[in-house]
């Protein structure tokens, strides 16, 4: 504990001799009792001393000119900090009961009459000095306790925060473990179907109809795998802020209607009562990302609504917003899960008999995409069995007519010759065979240097170039082809597993004409080759 200051005693008397006598008498005991003695010749001087110091006791003369002892005592006790200082009045006159009452009313604790008896004064002073020391010790202990309490409170808050963070991390780790298990399940299902279908095609005695069905299964499950990979990549891009929107004015109602028609055409909504009420509403948005939002909301409703349930899809305008609502009569959302349905790695109870697959990250993507468009998404539910409603709000714009698309021009010449530069043997063989089936003359190469040699020898009209090549990558292949006068006019299409805006920029900077993200289906590839053939030659 810090060392305490010595208690102070203030003697107030207008008579110099009396003041000297009292201070000298008190000074005799100062070393023994460990206190300091201060003096004042008037009430005003006493008040100044009280403003500067704390006192264990004040010996105050009653009869002083100007401000007498009673007035001085009243002024001292009127100040909050000095209100509790004990005051002993000293007087040469015999005080009657009224005088004593008046003194006590002004804060006196005792009376002494002159001449003062030293032993009596010593005894009284010793009591008040001891009280002052004890009070100061208690104050210091209280300050230390307060400081310790503050430290303990801060430590407790820190520990509480650490416990909450640890619990949150455990919940997230558990959710990630469940997500990874679900991802493995979702990947194995289509891979198992693809493997079985491929084996079936090679079996002796399989019918032509069986081969066709196996081919459709391979195509469908490959597309499903592509969607899973796209969801994972889109989530990563959205969380890192690497998605750039290609905005244009569009009618949200028309976009939603087209999505619903696709669900009906593919039979995915056959077992449900699908109701739509779509009022036009124009927004400035990326049609691809908005289709993704719409599909994820409808997929979510289908996933958690039993067959025969009702799904209502509505659009309308409300003040400065265009609103999309997807309401279902499905399993609903528990109250404790509702605030977290848009969080990453959070999903409702999974069951083995779910009619729809998925990773449970669709709603996280929806929220990220909505925020990128300057909007927001909300979820409502009455609880388990009460169905769910998801409401998307996007900023409304005035109706703007989209420019008419330029008429497509067909190439006058026949199909272009194609050079395929791809290091994956199976991928190179399959794409070569597909292009050959469509009537294209195809040469192939397994790496960048072989591709450059083939391009100089074969002089193709168009080259499909994988970016991740051994030796020199696809960017360098494109730069060298553009730098060589003999190959600079070849149309170049990049094939890559990377689809970020920065990847597209690097591809175009290297000299490519188009950028395709794997896996590329044959219709997409045919369209790319056709459109590339119509593009003027890069210089």
TrEMBL record:
Ribosomal protein in keyword set: no
Reaction(s) catalysed by this chain's protein: ATP + protein L-histidine = ADP + protein N-phospho-L-histidine
Pfam families, per database record: HATPase_c, HisKA, Response_reg
Annotated ranges, domain Histidine kinase: 182-398
Residue ranges constituting the Response regulatory domain according to the UniProt record: 8-129, 417-533
Residues in coiled coil: 128-155
Protein name as catalogued: histidine kinase
Native source species: Duganella aceris
């Amino acid at each position: 504990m810090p060392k305490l200051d010595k208690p102070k005693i203030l003697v107030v008397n207008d008579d110099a001799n009396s003041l000297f006598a009292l201070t000298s008498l008190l000074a005799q005991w100062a070393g023994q009792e460990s206190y300091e003695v201060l003096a004042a010749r008037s009430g005003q001087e006493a008040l100044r001393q009280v403003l500067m110091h704390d006192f264990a006791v004040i010996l105050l003369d009653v009869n002083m000119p100007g401000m007498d002892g009673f007035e001085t005592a009243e002024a001292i006790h009127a100040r909050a900090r000095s209100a509790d200082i004990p005051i002993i009045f000293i007087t040469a006159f015999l005080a009657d009961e009224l005088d004593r009452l008046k003194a006590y009313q002004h804060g006196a604790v005792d009376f002494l009459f002159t001449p003062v008896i030293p032993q009596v004064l010593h005894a009284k002073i010793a009591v008040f000095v001891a009280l002052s020391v004890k009070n100061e010790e208690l104050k210091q202990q209280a300050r230390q306790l307060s400081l310790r309490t503050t430290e303990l409170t801060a430590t407790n808050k820190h520990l509480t925060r650490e416990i909450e963070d640890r619990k949150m991390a455990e919940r997230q780790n558990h959710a990630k473990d469940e997500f990874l298990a679900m991802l493995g399940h979702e990947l194995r299902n289509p891979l198992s179907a693809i493997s079985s279908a491929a084996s079936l095609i090679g079996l002796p005695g399989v019918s032509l109809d069986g081969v066709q069905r196996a081919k459709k299964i391979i195509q469908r499950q490959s597309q499903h795998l592509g969607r899973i990979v796209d969801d994972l990549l889109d989530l990563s891009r959205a969380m890192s802020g690497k998605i750039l929107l290609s905005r244009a004015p569009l009618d949200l109602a028309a976009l939603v209607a087209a999505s619903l028609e696709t669900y009906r055409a593919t039979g995915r909504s056959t077992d449900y009562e699908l109701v739509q009420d779509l009022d036009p509403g124009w927004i400035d948005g990326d049609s691809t990302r908005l289709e993704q939002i719409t599909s994820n909301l409808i997929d979510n409703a289908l996933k958690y609504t039993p067959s025969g349930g009702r799904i209502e899809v509505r659009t309308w305008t409300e003040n400065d917003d265009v609103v999309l609502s997807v309401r279902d009569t499905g399993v609903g959302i528990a109250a404790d899960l509702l605030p977290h349905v848009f969080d990453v790695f959070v999903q409702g109870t999974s069951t083995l008999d779910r009619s729809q697959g998925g990773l449970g990250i669709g709603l996280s993507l929806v929220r990220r995409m909505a925020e990128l468009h300057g909007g927001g998404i909300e979820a409502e539910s009455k609880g388990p069995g009460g169905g769910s409603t998801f409401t998307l709000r996007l900023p409304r714009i005035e109706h703007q007519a989209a420019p008419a698309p330029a008429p497509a021009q067909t190439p006058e010449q026949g199909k272009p010759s194609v050079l395929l530069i791809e290091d994956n043997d199976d991928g190179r063989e399959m794409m070569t065979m597909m292009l050959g089936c469509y009537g294209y003359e195809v040469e192939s190469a397994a790496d960048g240097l072989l591709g450059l040699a083939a391009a100089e020898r074969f002089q193709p009209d168009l080259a499909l170039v994988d970016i991740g090549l051994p030796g020199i990558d696809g960017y360098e292949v494109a730069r060298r082809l553009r730098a060589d006068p003999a190959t600079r006019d070849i149309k170049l299409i990049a094939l890559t597993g990377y689809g970020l805006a920065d990847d597209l920029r690097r591809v175009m900077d290297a000299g490519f004409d188009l950028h395709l993200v794997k896996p590329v289906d044959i219709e997409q590839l045919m369209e790319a080759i056709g459109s590339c053939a119509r593009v003027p030659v890069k210089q």
